[in-house]
Design goal:
Number of helices: 18
CATH class of one domain: Alpha Beta
Strand order of the largest sheet: 1-3-2-4-5
CATH architecture of one domain: 3-Layer(aba) Sandwich
Helix content: 40-55%
Shape: globular
Radius of gyration: 21 Å
Distance between the termini: 49 Å
Number of strands: 11
CATH topology of one domain: Rossmann fold
Strand content: 5-15%
Order of helices and strands: HHHHHHHEEHHEHHEHEHEEEHEHHEHEH
Largest sheet: 5 strands, parallel
Structural class: alpha/beta
């Protein structure tokens, strides 16, 4: 679909501004009432989902023919976290602001309105199959010495996908190594693609480069099929969102293959008694829901239809579009694991699960708008500190990296952990 295909969505926006806040009935304080980081930072309607829908409508009706640099900032200073979509669906009639904003980005890219930082990331993808431009040959170095199967030459039941951030950020290598060790100890037949692993393409897609997603989807699906794996386990929430949501929406789906985030797989191992926690971890924590694991990790369903005139003044999609609210995302598995660790006290932040606040690192926002990403991360850290927790735990390396970098910049002190670190600690570091 193109931007023009969403005229119905644009014309039915009520300009109600619900996309800016968490649902009023769930607000516990004025301090943490916002749901959209863009509008919270800029406090100008153009930076909300509703404002971007207005811009899109002006484009398709011919009232806006030139996209200025300021307009580019309105379009791209957004982490595509999906908070607006869940709020719009709560109060409106199956509108899809995220789809409109996605097509708006694609429209800008096709016109040549591309942020230099995003252009560099795409060039990096073309050259090295990762957004950092790191040598492709280094991708599997995190697994050196593990004696894990090479999925390219050996069959395995479980295909482990580390993702770009974990593969090239050495601080996260112990997390991935711990995951492999725990899975193998539990009896899992696991393999990795190593240096032949490639980006999921999700970040490029969210920046407006749609074809990159399908290219990487075809590569990934082909590799999984060749491996014979029946389960794919991912470490990165971005990969989780791409594999489960974006690929499916693009008509790229793995048949008879289960895709699980590491927290979902660990939940299964714990329930089956294949993982046991031996060590007490006395720690008061709060958990951050990554957007692409939660609301944007809801399994996607491709829609094929058209907008028809049902009444003289009523147009509607036929057949009805799938209703994406975010309720089918991965929320309980990480919490169940954390609660099972002896000594852990889990305290929820005001904005959690479907209404979680974004860390600010997604969709190219971290690279092109560092101040925006830092603002969003600092806001979440403040919310975490307000609970009285001593540590902030998440299940996404992008979130963890942005939190740690922001804490370093601001001189604040708070523990930040990947959930796998606590699992490994509770198992005795085995």
């Amino acid at each position: 679909m193109s931007l023009q295909d969403y005229h119905y969505e644009m014309s039915h926006c009520h300009r109600c501004s619900y996309c800016k806040f968490i649902p009023y009935q769930l607000m516990k304080s004025h301090r943490f009432a916002y749901g959209c980081p863009s509008i919270a930072l800029r406090n100008f309607h153009a930076y909300s989902a509703g404002g971007r829908v207005i811009m899109s409508h002006a484009i398709v009706t011919g009232r806006l023919t030139e996209i200025t640099e300021t307009m580019e900032d309105v379009v791209f200073e957004c982490s595509m976290c999906g908070a607006c979509q869940t709020k719009c669906r709560t109060y409106n009639y199956n509108l899809n602001p995220m789809e409109v904003m996605q097509e708006l980005r694609t429209h800008c890219v096709e016109r040549g309105n591309i942020k230099p930082e995003h252009a560099m990331m795409i060039e990096n993808l073309k050259k090295e199959d990762n957004v950092f431009g790191e040598p492709k040959g280094r991708r599997g170095q995190w697994a050196q010495g593990l004696d894990v199967k090479d999925i390219n030459t050996e069959k395995a039941d479980v295909f482990f996908h580390a993702g770009c951030r974990i593969s090239y950020d050495e601080e996260f290598w112990p997390v991935a190594r711990a995951a492999i060790k725990i899975m193998r100890k539990a009896g899992a037949d696991v393999g990795i693609a190593g240096k032949d692993e490639a980006c999921c393409g999700g970040r490029a897609y969210q920046m407006g480069f749609k074809t990159r997603l399908t290219d990487y989807a075809d590569d990934f699906i082909g590799r999984v099929k060749a491996s014979g794996a029946r389960t794919v386990v991912v470490m990165c929430s971005d990969c989780n969102g791409a594999f489960k949501h974006h690929y499916a929406r693009a008509g790229k789906k793995l048949e008879h293959v289960e895709i699980l985030h590491i927290s979902e797989y660990l939940q299964r191992l714990v329930r089956e008694g294949r993982v046991a926690f031996k060590r007490t971890v006395p720690m008061k924590i709060t958990y951050h829901d990554p957007c692409n694991l939660g609301r944007m990790g809801e399994p996607g369903i491709p829609w094929q239809g058209e907008y028809r005139r049902l009444e003289p003044h009523i147009f509607a999609p036929v057949p009805e579009k799938p209703m994406y609210i975010g309720l089918q995302g991965c929320y309980e598995p990480p919490r169940e694991i954390l609660k099972a660790i002896p000594g852990i006290e889990l305290i929820e932040m005001e904005r959690n699960r479907i209404n979680s606040w974004c860390c600010g690192a997604g969709a190219g926002a971290l690279e092109a708008y560092e101040d925006f990403a830092a603002f969003s991360a600092a806001e979440r850290i403040d919310e975490a500190r307000s609970t009285g927790a001593e540590a902030l735990v998440t299940a996404c390396p992008w979130c963890e990296r942005n939190f740690k970098d922001t804490l370093k910049k601001t001189g604040q002190a708070m523990g930040v952990y990947d959930i796998m670190e606590l699992v490994d600690l509770a198992m005795g570091g085995e």
